[in-house]
Amino acid sequence: MAEQIPEAINLAQTSIVNVNMANVTKLNSSNYIMWSRQVHALLDGYGLAKHLDSSATIPDLQITVNDIAAPNPAFEAWNRQDRLIYSALIGAISLSVQSVVTRADTAADVWVTLAHTYAKPSRGHIKQLKHQLKNWTKGTRTIDDYVQGLTSRFDQLALLGKVIDHEDQVEYILGGLPDDYKSVVDQLEGRDIPPTLTELHEKLLNYEAKLLTVTSPSPYPITANYVNNRNRSSNNNKSTPNQHQSWTPNSQPRGFTPRAPRPYLGRCQICGVHGHSAKRCSHLHSMVSSGSNNQPLLPTPPYPPSPWLPRANIATMNQNGGNITPWILDSGATHHITSDLSNLALHQPYNGGE
């Protein structure tokens, strides 16, 4: 029995490692696979993974020296280290899951209980995961969240002994994408050899970035019409007898189109629409013809909102000879088009309809 003392003392002198799991993502009901891998890798790096093995030999609580029972220093060292690992595991579990391990006494008990709860190949658990795969779509999720949600369920099914074939995994990922991704889906489905999940994820990320860079169309349709200044005379530099005549309403230059009246820019007091006055409103005539004396002709504010539509009107002037003093035409347009950008101080490409 005397030979046990040096070994026990040697084990007792083993340094105690304070395990820090502050960087470990807390365990919840859906991330057991990655959580268990991270925790096991951490403890394995410390050389303490044996504390997670329920079949590992635990030192005896007592030893016998000269026929006298005494506390075993090796057990004391093991117990202190196991307590630290146990505490670290509890701290790496979310509050909603901690109730599952309330009866666990050692780190190995915690590990085995969690494995039986979240990695047990029960029929109901497998059926639930497969149902989630069928109904998992991108929707408003990002590509990262969408793909991660599917791959995590692939891994859970593999842990439960139900490995999803690689081609089926690719079909699940492509099948839940919206119509915006149709072009990249057709390209990937046309391959003879399906892409790896890493390659597929990368291509979807690139296509998502491409979609985000596309400028959304303006909510206001812009219409631009042709503006023409036609000069029918080939003698622009020659003087004509009437070129210095003063202009009067009764002596207009030949070929000159009178200036169109400026459109009404106010709001109608009856229908609330811009562009015409109340006396020209069609609703006024219908109300007068109905002969109703019980309803007021003018509505009370606030008036119904009307959408603002930018417009470009046409303004033309025909010069049939003579150097007529140039007229400045006010077309009331909100947008203008030109073939020479030097004519405009501020300009931008026209993306509206014809």
Automatic annotation (TrEMBL):
Residues 228-237 have a biased composition (Low complexity). Residues 223-259 are annotated as: Disordered. Transmembrane segments: none annotated. It comes from the Eukaryota. Residues 238-254 have a biased composition (Polar residues). This is Retrovirus-related Pol polyprotein from transposon RE1. It comes from Cardamine amara subsp. amara.
